[in-house]
Backbone:
DNA sequence: CCCCCCCC
């Protein structure tokens, strides 16, 4: 790329490259040969309102409101919807946001008007690498970079490594947005379909992830459920731009991944260690993992549910140093009863406790439960 | 926006 094109690219297409080159030639003549072509191009850019074409390219971690104009390269990690609003002068304004990252961190971009159209028209997608020139200011959640009429946001062929500031699972609270988190993949649910309010068909699925601080259920909507196709248990995965909501049924906080979220495999190392509850400490109404050995085996039974479908259940007992508990194994888990022997070491992970038959506490091992025979 | 902890 020659020097003129390089400077032209920082103009964000406000005039055509041919017109820009003509203006540069005029400028060289005007200056009676006192400046070189590059300087002339910078002067023309300045005349057009772009004042920072000579500025150094900096890293995201160094961007702060005191710097003002910044040039940097970054990869798009989230794209948000464009909103329109009415200006006091009666015109309609447009504003859109992107989250971008480089190898030092991530930052939010605010694109105005015709720059926001780049988002609206689908010209900017997650994963694109961009050259960015804009104005750093204190925004609504820390420093952000504004890109208006004289700002620049162009795709570049450079491949940019990214590092995202990520949360730990134990820090995730109801209502949080922009959640980036990594974890080990502990479980993948079946995909369910459902009817949306508008009559169209929706798809929903769940995964469970864990890190060294805990585990959390993740809900994936519509096409996001497909991101799990390439994944297998124990992979490390990362979530970019999820949001957290309390599940109405379980009252547990979950991460949701909708239109603007990303779920993908990563090479990062994440530690996860299951924590097991002593059987004596189990109280009703919670999810537990226990570790012990089989101390009783019941019969496999089929039964009809109220809705007419049939299901299977079997009961086993598990003991540890602190006590003994009955486990109801539902669905496919029920078949395990035929493979188990007394004293087989076993782990029951994420089973739900309740007061069962004779008001004794028991665990239900349903489709969210994993069972490991050691 | 969905699953919904079921048996004897």
Residues:
């Amino acid at each position: 790329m020659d020097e003129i094109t390089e400077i032209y690219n920082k103009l964000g297409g406000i005039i055509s490259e041919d017109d820009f080159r003509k203006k540069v030639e005029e400028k060289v003549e005007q200056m009676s040969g006192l400046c070189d072509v590059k300087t002339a191009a910078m002067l023309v850019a300045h005349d057009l309102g772009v004042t920072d074409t000579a500025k150094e390219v900096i890293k995201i971690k160094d961007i702060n409101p005191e710097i003002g104009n910044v040039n940097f390269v970054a990869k798009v990690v989230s794209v948000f919807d464009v909103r329109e609003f009415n200006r006091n002068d009666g015109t309609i304004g447009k504003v859109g946001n992107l989250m971008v990252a480089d190898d030092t961190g991530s930052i939010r971009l605010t694109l105005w008007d015709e720059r926001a159209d780049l988002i609206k028209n689908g010209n900017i997608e997650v994963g694109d690498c961009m050259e960015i020139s804009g104005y750093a200011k204190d925004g609504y959640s820390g420093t952000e970079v504004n890109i208006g009429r004289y700002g620049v946001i162009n795709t570049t062929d450079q491949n940019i490594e990214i590092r995202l500031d990520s949360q730990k699972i134990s820090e995730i609270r109801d209502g949080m947005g922009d959640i980036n988190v990594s974890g080990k993949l502990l479980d993948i649910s079946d995909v369910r379909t459902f009817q949306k309010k508008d009559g169209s068909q929706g798809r929903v699925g769940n995964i469970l992830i864990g890190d060294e601080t805990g585990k959390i259920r993740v809900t994936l909507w519509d096409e996001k459920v497909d991101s799990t196709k390439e994944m297998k248990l124990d992979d490390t995965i990362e979530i970019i731009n999820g949001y957290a909501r309390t599940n109405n049924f379980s009252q547990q906080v979950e991460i949701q991944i909708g239109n603007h979220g990303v779920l993908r495999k990563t090479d990062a190392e994440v530690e996860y260690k299951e924590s097991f509850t002593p059987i004596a400490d189990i109280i009703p109404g919670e999810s537990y993992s226990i570790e012990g050995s089989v101390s009783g085996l019941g019969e496999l039974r089929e039964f009809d549910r109220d809705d007419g479908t049939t299901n299977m259940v079997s009961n086993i007992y598990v003991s540890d140093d602190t006590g003994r508990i009955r486990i109801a194994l539902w669905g496919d888990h029920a078949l395990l009863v035929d493979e188990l022997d007394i004293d087989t070491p076993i782990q029951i992970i994420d089973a739900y406790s309740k007061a069962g038959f004779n008001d004794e506490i028991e665990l239900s091992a349903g489709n969210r439960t994993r069972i490991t025979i050691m």
Notes: The first strand of chain A starts at residue 69 and ends at 79. Chain A is about 10% helix and 45% strand. The mean pLDDT of chain A is 89. The radius of gyration of chain A is 29 Å.
